[in-house]
Amino acid sequence: MSTIRVTLFGPFRVQSGEANLTGQFSYKAQELLCYLLLHRDHPHQRETLASILWGDENTTAQSRKTLRQTLWQLQTTLNSSIESGHGLVLRVEGDLIELNLGEAVWLDTAVFEQAFAAVQGVPGPEMSASDAQALHRAVELYRADLLEGWYQDWCLYERERFQNMYLMLLDKLMGYCEARYNYEDGLIYGMRILRYDGARERTHRRLMRLYCLAGDRSAALRQFQRCAAALEDELGVTPSRRTMMLYEQIREDQLTPMLPASPAPTTIPGSAAASLSEVLSSLRQIEAALTDLQRQVQRESEAVTAPLKGQR
Description:
Largest sheet: 4 strands, mixed
Strand content: 5-15%
Order of helices and strands: EEEHEHHEEEHHHHHHHH
Distance between the termini: 87 Å
């Protein structure tokens, strides 16, 4: 039994094994199929579907007729192209219409949404390695915007929704990479975010940090300049106080790396988790003390060298 691969990122495509089935669907059948795929969690009223997909037609009766004809076309194509019971199953019961995915169907947006749901509420630095791997696979599926070239209202809304999810996943991956000192991959994820949202100040800050922590302070300072230019060009504003503080830290070479993230608490016995929490707390205190000591030594050094400079 061949896997039915349906891709909605980029141009719509249906493939069974080596056979491309996309051309067997009329344009209206493609539109109906894609809408049902993206809203497959519940059945839909005929009138609602007709209004959403073809509400711009002259009359309600005409849009319902278009839906009726398109349903027949879609059902015929599914029955003739895809093995019954294992692929895309269109269920029409009275006024309700629903699309079910058979066991042999792979849908890129479904995999993407599953990865997104799995890390809801989990900060990037706290994700597990398996979570990060799943997110990496998910963002690689996003080869282009949803249903590229389609401009229906419902499609524009879904496109923006998936794009927002994509940017959130990239942001989590940036945080994960920084927490594990994988600065190179973190930079790659950040650049992908800026391709979609060039004035995303949070991402510019993270890129500044990653460049600096990777040992390229000059690149970090250049990133600040790009941030300031993007904010001015797109929003007419200047960098926030938080961004300016980070810029000063980098310029004065006072940026410290993030501590490694602790393992997920569900994998650690209670006593071990408590001990780990105490260790991390102690490490943070040590880090703060070392920072204070470094600044104190620097001040004392400057105080000693100042009179010598005056004698020259």
